[in-house]
Amino acid sequence: MDDSLMLARPAPTPQRPLLGQTVLLVEDSRFASEAIRLLALRSGARIRRADCIASAERHLLTYRAGIAIVDLGLPDGSGLGLLERLDRANQRPLVLLGTSGQEPAAAREAALGAGADGFLPKPIESLAAFQQAILRHMPSELWPRGLRSVGSERVEPDRLALSEDLIYAGRMLDDERVPTRFVAEFLTGLARTDGDAELLSRTEGLAARTIEDLRPVLRALISERLEARRVV
After folding, report:
1. What is the phi/psi pair of residue 63, to 5°?
2. How far is CA 136 from CA 69, 95, 133, 153, 182, in A?
3. In 3-state terms, what secondary structure has residue 152?
C-alpha cells in the first residue's frame, strides 16, 4: 500500500475502527441502506450509496472505494456480476462483501463464488457483527491499535424508509423493464430485513405462481402493508 495514502488517511481508533475508509453500498432498499449508513458512520467510515449497477459504475469512475458492499439482487441486473468485476479490477476494494435478504446459505455461496471476501445476511443491525465482517478482511496495518471493546449495540433504521421501499416496489410493478419476480424477491428481502415473519411466509410462497398471477398478488401485498403503516 502507498505510504503517502496511509499518512493522509486518519488513523482508525478502537471506537471508530473504520475511520478514514469509504464504503460504497450498492443497495436499492432504502430501509436496508439506512441501517448500513448508521453502522458505517458509527464505525467512522464515509459512505456513498448506489441504488443500481449503472449508478455504482458511475461512482467507481470517479473514486476508489476501500470497502464495497453489494446487494445480490438489483433492479438492472445481478449483483454477482458486479462482484466479479470488482474482484478482477486493477484497483480492487480492500474488502468486498455481498449482502442479500434471500435464503442466506445459497446467497453466501453465490457471493463467495463471485469473488466476495465475505457475506452480510440481512437484517444487518449489529455494530459488532458489521465491524468484524469488514475488519477480518482488512490489511493488518489498517487495524486500530489497542484493545477493541466489542459491544452489543444495534441500530434502528428510520421506519419511514420502510414505507418508501413499499412505494418503490409498487412503482417497479408498473415498470415493464423490471421483472415481476424481482419485485417478489425485493419484498422477500424487505420482509427479512424488517423481521416481518408474516410477509416473509407469504412472499416465499410466490415462486410457484405464474407471471400473470403474480402481479395482482404483489400489488395487494404492497397495498396491505402500506395501509398498515398508515394506521401505525
Report:
1. -155, 160
2. 15, 9, 6, 19, 32
3. coil
CA dist 128 and 107 (Å) reads 22
The tens digit of pLDDT for each residue in 78-92 reads 999 999 999 999 999
Question: 3-state DSSP call for residue 127?
Answer: helix
Q: Which CATH architecture has domain 3-142?
A: 3-Layer(aba) Sandwich (3.40)
Q: Are strands 22-26 and 77-78 parallel, antiparallel or unpaired?
A: unpaired
* Single pTM value for the model: 0.92
**Amino acid in the structure at residue 75:** P
Question: 162 CB contacts (<8 Å, ≥6 apart)?
Answer: 31, 190, 194, 229
Strand partners, 98: 70, 119
Q: What letter does residue 126 receive in the DSSP assignment?
A: B
| Model pLDDT for residues 21-78, shown as the tens digit of each residue | 999 999 999 999 999 999 999 999 999 999 999 999 999 998 889 999 999 999 999 9
Q: Where are the domains of the chain?
A: 3-142, 160-231
- Closest CA relative to residue 109, chosen from 123, 96, 119: 119
Return left, alpha or beta for 195; rule: phi > 0 is left, psi -120 to 50 is alpha, else beta: left
